[in-house]
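Sanity check. The docking grid for fe (iii) ion depends on where the pocket ends up, so I'm generating a full predicted complex first rather than guessing from homology. Inputs follow.
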Amino acid sequence: MAHLIGSISTSHVPAIGGALAHQKQQDPYWKPFFDAYGKAREWLARERPDVVVIVHNDHGLNFFLDKMPTFAVGAADVYRNADEGWGIPPLAAARGCVDLSWHIVETLVADEFDITTCQEALVDHSVSLPLALLWPEGKEAGEWPVEIVPVCINTVLAPYPSAARCYRMGQSLRRAIESWDDDRRVLVIASGGLSHQLDGERAGFINKSFDQQFMESLVDDPKWITRYSNEELVELTGTQGIELLMWVAARGALDDIPVKQHHAHYHVPISNTATGLLVLEPA
Ligand code: DHB
Ligand code: FE
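Predicted complex below; grid placement will be based on this.
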């Protein structure tokens, strides 16, 4: 059976793609942000995942407002990145793990999640940037050392699924990974959040104390966040802060396994976003 090695939750900001393209890792603005990924990369070098289930949100590249699935699971053999309008060169395509995709699709549907299955899908900065931050050697080589299964949660067109539902979806992902008849090592990545608001009267809104409380809660009290409605979460974290739902789903995927925090980092701001990084492993 497959082995679930843990989770890495990270924020995504398109400007990271520009910083990587222009090699700004040592620039004073970027250095604290990029340095934090060193510990996650060391952990990955030790844990050597083969497959990544990446819980992320699309921002209009793959789904637009005319068609917006609440949960969508990729079942493609390749996921290309494309220009999202930021002028950043697209990163290497990711290889899909089709076998795990279909096992996840079957498990989620059996667990009564009404998902959209995507046998073709583009992926945006929410997938390409975590890969580039965690496997810079793959960025250079033009090929990532892992296969992926993208699991997309709608956080761009209300209504969104609740934190409690995303947590339960994560629990179903764990059942899928642990019952996958394969001996590969699987990592769960969450990509999104933390607090940020890109437009409107509260543009630039950041809530450091709430973000930090949320990150701490994920270690020992992972259902803490489910006390909040999505309206409350938008109020507390900004219209795009609701992307923290990815972190909730990834934590759900480790539920029932006592976890240990291997690494945590919080840095404000990168672009308009409070950025967090959290590496959890089975205790
Ligand atoms: C920014 C953050 C995001 O999550 C995103 O998808 C786009 C932009 C930002 O802070 O610039
Ligand atoms: Fe985003």
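Relevant for the grid: The first helix runs from residue 15 to 21.
Also worth noting: The first strand starts at residue 3 and ends at 10.
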